[in-house]
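hey
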């Protein structure tokens, strides 16, 4: 049950604001629309109060307020959840974005990052010392939501998932207690936080191990006409079969985007690209990528040595805030001939000039961590598919969404799992699929310990019952 503006207990709000160090934003306040908006423009919700937390006591106060008032409680990092879990109607949004401090210790090779940090901010702070945390591929994504679900990106095959770098997590529980989790403190909780999402508390700070990186990597896309897709994918599966961990690739089917690094004559043309990121020694990378460059007749080759930070920002303009997004995702073991045929067929039916369909190459260090070491469920995945419909607004959204669903259904005989951070609002069975039955039961037991009343349920929910 939620509360409208009129119903919310004014005395309780006054009490909260008396001690609250951040900003409380309510309907009608300046900035209300800005702060209730999330990345996915198709989500339009009106919370009763947005608690923009500046420090840990604000988080404790906001949780207590939501719990005592019986309000829906949404927790927001950067608001990038595809289904819009970080905003709710008539409830409280605990907005961590103002808590965005980063402290890097280059000697110990560790970094502490508060929960409001964006990936680009963490990368900038760590790359100043030639170090990095493996994380995602768009700089304006929130570190908190991404990390809690696992965290896949350009460096994962070399260094593992974002959760594989975690040393400790500080969180405020549903009961309002500050708790630390690490290998030594609350190890069960630490296990669950590495993939189990925001189910067990509101994280205020992460501590990561850092890895040496770059600053120069060999990276970027090479484009071919989309009609080359079946031939290219058959070449690609052999090419990556023995690829070293330093290489991570994403294959993208889409119409060429109207961005500055693509010549105007290609804009809107159906293309398939292989985007590489080689984080090892450059000459070796050039040798490895040479056969890909030679395959067929590329339309455009933008794979070159460049700063890692530049590569990280490459996708930013093609996933802006406010467009309408819908995604169907799945893990697929291998690019069999049958899968390739489905991919080529459905990719050729993309209508929107904005829609993009990435296929992520998994494996490497991700697969070498034992399956039961963290709650993340996709260690064995060969490829992660993101069938993402994108339109500027409602026009054409329904048709594009149907395309994504049909594509996903056609792939159904070939997929078995899904990355939890790529789920929409798909129900409990799909969340269970993301973890597998055994891991899911263990997560449920953990939920019963740390949030027995399911206060934190606006997420890919692991219900305690
Ligand atoms: C443009 C874009 C690019 C992406 N790229 C990648 C990628 O490269 N790799 C990858 O792994 N994923 C990627 N994702 C998916 C991403 O991991 C999820 O969308 C993630 O949830 C985003 O985190 P957020 O903090 O921005 O989102 P939010 O919407 O703020 O939060 C997402 C979920 O996490 C919970 N949450 C947020 N902060 C906290 C906290 N402090 N404590 C407890 N719970 C919290 C929320 O309640 C919500 O359920 C991408 C998403 C987008 C939109």
């Amino acid at each position: 049950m939620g509360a409208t503006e009129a119903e919310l207990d004014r005395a309780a709000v006054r009490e909260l604001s008396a001690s609250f160090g951040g900003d409380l934003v309510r309907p009608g306040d300046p900035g209300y629309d800005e702060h209730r908006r999330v990345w996915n423009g198709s989500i339009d919700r009106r919370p009763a109060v947005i608690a923009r937390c500046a420090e840990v006591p604000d988080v404790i106060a906001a949780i207590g307020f939501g719990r005592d008032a019986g309000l829906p409680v949404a927790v927001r990092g950067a608001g990038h959840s595809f289904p819009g879990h970080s905003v709710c109607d008539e409830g409280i949004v605990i907005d961590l974005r103002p808590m965005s401090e980063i402290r890097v210790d280059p000697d110990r090779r560790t970094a502490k990052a508060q929960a409001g940090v964006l990936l680009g901010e963490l990368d900038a702070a760590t790359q100043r010392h030639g170090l990095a945390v493996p994380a995602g591929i768009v700089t304006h994504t929130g570190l908190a939501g991404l990390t809690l679900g696992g965290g896949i990106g350009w460096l994962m095959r070399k260094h593992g998932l974002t959760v594989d770098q975690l040393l400790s997590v500080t969180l405020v529980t549903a009961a309002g207690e500050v708790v630390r989790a690490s290998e030594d403190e609350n190890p069960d909780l630490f296990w669950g936080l590495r993939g189990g999402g925001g189910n067990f508390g509101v994280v205020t700070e992460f501590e990561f191990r850092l890895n040496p990186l770059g600053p120069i990597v060999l990276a970027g896309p090479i484009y071919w006409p989309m009609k080359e897709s079946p031939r290219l994918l058959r070449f690609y599966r052999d090419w990556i079969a023995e690829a070293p961990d330093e290489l991570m690739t994403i294959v993208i089917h889409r119409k060429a985007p109207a961005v500055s690094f693509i010549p105007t004559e290609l804009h809107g043309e159906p293309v398939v690209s292989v985007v590489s990121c080689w984080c090892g020694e450059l000459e070796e990378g050039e040798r490895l990528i040479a056969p890909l460059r030679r395959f067929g007749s590329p339309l455009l080759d933008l794979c070159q040595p460049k700063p890692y930070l530049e590569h990280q920002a490459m996708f930013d303009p093609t996933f802006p805030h406010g467009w309408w997004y819908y995604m169907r995702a799945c893990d697929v073991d291998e690019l069999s001939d049958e899968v390739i045929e489905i991919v080529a067929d459905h990719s050729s039916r993309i209508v929107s000039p904005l829609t993009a369909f990435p296929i992520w190459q998994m494996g490497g260090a991700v697969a070498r961590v034992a399956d039961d070491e963290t709650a993340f469920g996709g260690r064995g995945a060969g490829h992660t598919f993101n069938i993402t419909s994108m339109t500027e607004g409602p026009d054409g959204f329904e048709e594009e969404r149907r395309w994504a669903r049909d594509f996903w259904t056609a792939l159904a005989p070939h997929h078995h799992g899904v990355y939890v951070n790529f789920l929409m609002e798909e129900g409990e069975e799909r969340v269970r699929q993301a973890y597998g039955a055994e891991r899911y039961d263990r997560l449920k037991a953990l939920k019963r310990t740390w949030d027995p009343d399911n206060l934190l349920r606006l997420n890919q929910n692991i219900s305690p019952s």
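The chain has 15 helices and 20 strands. The first strand starts at residue 23 and ends at 25.
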